[in-house]
Structures are given as C-alpha cells and as structure tokens.
Amino acid sequence: MFNFGNGKTLIDLIPDRLSHAATSFVESLKINSITEKSRRHRRIVVKRRNLYGERAAALINFYFRAAGIPIRYVSNVREWRRWEMRCFQMLNGDRFRAKVINSRTVTLDKLPGDNLWEHMNRGTLTPQMLKAAGSEYRRAHHFQSKELGCPWSHGDASMTNVIYDEKTKRTRLIDFEIRHEKSLPARARHADDLLVFLLDMVGRIPTRQWLPFAICFLRAYGNPPVIRQLKKRLVVPSGLASIWWNVRTNFTPNAKVTRRFQALRRAIDKLEFSQSGSGLYRSLATDSARNKRRPSITCQRTRAGIPTSKSRKRAKRDMAKAVSPGMPRRLPITR
Q1: Is 217 buried (19+), middle (13-18) or exposed (0-12) by CB count in 10 A?
Q2: Which residue ranges form the domains of the chain, and what is each CATH number?
Q3: Is the pTM of this model over 0.85?
C-alpha cells in the first residue's frame, strides 16, 4: 500500500521530524474529556465525547486503515456510549456501576488503586501485579461479545488501562473507546492485547527485569495458542505502522526493542505448556534441573538385600559412634 514507482513507501519519504510531529499529533487528539467527581459518597469518572470527537476519531481511523492497523476508535457517539457501558459492566459489574447520563456522557465508578503504568514509572511494579494482570486478561478474553460475534477483546489494553487494587490483589480493565476490527480472528485480537501490554514495558523496564516480568505476565495468562500467535508479532513493523508503534513503545529505539523481543521469543520457545486445567506452563530449564536430581528410593520397588533409608542412616550413625572404624558399636547378639 502507498508504494511509489521508485520502490519507496510513503513512510520512506516522510522526514523523521515530520514523523515525530505526526505521532505527537495523534497523541494530542483527545476524543473524550475525562473528569472525576464525588456523588453520594462515591467517586465517579465522567467521560464525555468532545464536540470534535467524531471527526478526530474518523481522522485517526483513516490512518489506522492506511497503515493496516486492525483497531478503530468507536467514532459514533451512540455506539461508543453503549460499548463503553457494556464493557465496563461486563468486566467490573460485580462491584461497580456504569451509567449513560446524556447523549454524549457516561459515568463510571472510579476503581480503587493505581494503574500499572504509574507503578512501573515509580519503580513499584511487582511480579504479583503482573500475575494479576495476566489472570485478568485471561478472564476478560473468555467473555463473549455480541458486537464482535466471538470472544471479547480490549483493543487498547495498555498498562494505563489496567488498575491494580492493593487490598484485593487483583486488576481490572478500563477505557473502551478503541476496539479491534470485527474481521480479525479472536486469537489474533487476544495476541494483540498482550502485545500492547508488553510494548509499554519494553522500553521502561530494566534489562535484568525484562524477561522475568514479561514471562511472569504470560505465565499468568496461560493460553498457549494465543502466546504462540503473540510470538509471531514480536517484530518491529515498517511503513506507516511504525508511527503508531513509536507511540506504543514511547519512542524506544527499535534496536533495543528488537533485542528484547528476540530474547522473549527464545524464552517462549523454551516454555512447555502443561496439560492441566490451570493453563499454567513451566520452563524446560525446570525440567532439566529436575532430571539432574538423584532418583528417589521411595518410588522404587525394593527386594531383599536392598538397604532402606532407615538402615543406611543407622549404619552411618553406628560407624560414627564406633571406637574404631573396624569395630562396630554393638556386638552381635548371641543366644
């Protein structure tokens, strides 16, 4: 798409400064305005579609189509209100509420806790938070969506949209103004949700934490087919898609992203998925260490002449207490 006769694509003809300006423009477009209020002793979030929101969403969607990026802003305000409320109620309706106020406004209960992006930037991100996030993504991906006609997906599952509650030790998803193209298979949509989460981490997490944290998140998610699909997407794109990629990675140098994604692909290759219902999997390195252990005598059949663990311990104890190594501590019993 957009390939010129000289073999260059449109992105090749755009200077770096203009590319960064375009990226900043995409970031600056605010489709909705968000404020916090207190009503009846409850903190709520008020999301209102701006007057120019539909046009801005249509402009960004044009870029998504041109770049081959399979997500879209829900530009129609009525459709957005319905989608935002339904998704929030579906995922968080056990304790929290969402309500349509007027033709352009939705109110949502404010979820307790901070988002994982803030935790990461403060240096307080922990494996427990990542496990909670992976488990919540797995739970969310099991819901069925009438609009998508198949299992639900987020579309903008970045760390800013994952709220961790310290008291309950669980995460919840928010912000549903973007969704995947309906034509995209569910497995590919779910892999894209995982990728978006990892793109937030790839440039911010220290090198020594990158693989342990990424694997911790994927382990908690625990869906082998989706993770294999994710592995195929751990590649830096080219063309117009690279502009949105820069936004997602917070302008992390491509060389650094490539290096870390290569390491993650190798780590995924070494993961063996268990057949248990839990969906968790273990590393082949764990199996290797397990194979080096001494065989257990308790799981082997014994016969006459094979010493038991008790007899070996008794013999060692008797030798240690003997007067000399050649003299037993106790004399033979005579009748």
Answers
A1: buried
A2: 10-289 (1.10.510)
A3: no
